[in-house]
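subagent[fold] <- orchestrator: predict structure for attached chain, return tokens only, no commentary.
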Amino acid sequence: MAENSIVARLVCDAGAAIGESPAWQGDSAWWTDPVSRRLLHWIDGHTARQTGADSNGHLESIAMPSSVWSLASLPDGTLAGALDDRFCSLSPSGEIAAGPAATIDAGCRFNDMTTDANGGLWVGMMHRGILATRGAIFYAPSLNEAPKRVASGLGVPNGMKLSADGRTLFVVDTLERTLLAYPVDGGMLGEPVIVSDFLGLAGKPDGMTLAPDGTFWVAMWGGSSVVQLARDGAYLQRIDVPAPHISSVCFAGPNRLLVTTSRMRLSPQALLDHPGSGALFEILLECP
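subagent[fold] -> orchestrator:
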């Protein structure tokens, strides 16, 4: 692979066991550390740096009563989350307002999520023991309605985003190392097609987001990088991140990518070698 001169810069050392599901709102980023039961909130210092000030922003770490596995913003600005078997809304202080429970399989829990332009919520379900074919996708029209199963037979459904027109749900299956595309019809999903199998790329695909140009940016767990894929799944570029486990990504503006990383399952020596593990990174992409 050709070398890439774009640099990932550490902006916030959150020390996350697993930094998951960043969501950008206004001038700040929210993400979750479900293993440590923390909600993380980074108030951006980017504007201050543009004016010449030396600021990396400010981190708030909010203790949570239960694990919040993922986050997404609703159209009205509400921060939504996924608990073990239901959706919830989260206040800026971390207060949880839980919705009705879904009927999920024994040994399973919710994982990564996304929202649509109508306020609908989509989430993956995975087996806690990471058993194959036990994964599924659930959908709820709103926070006040119980999520219903709309797809089955996955491994570990992870990063998910809807296309700009809302007609396709893109889902990473980490266990199967695939990026899938499901046709959307209201709250139902059709048969998926494989967009990418990540052949030849280091690590396992984890969190994912869509760029304004429709390309995919995917966090590679165990691969120390994020990769960009074309709309048809073709590999475009890799950007190295100085941490082994890259867990998720989100955009904070058209050319600014935020990257979460994790400390989980790293040896003491690996943590010494990669002190940025568990931190939030920023990548400033080249303008098209």
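orchestrator: received. Logging for downstream: The chain has a mean pLDDT of 94. The two ends are 21 Å apart (CA to CA).
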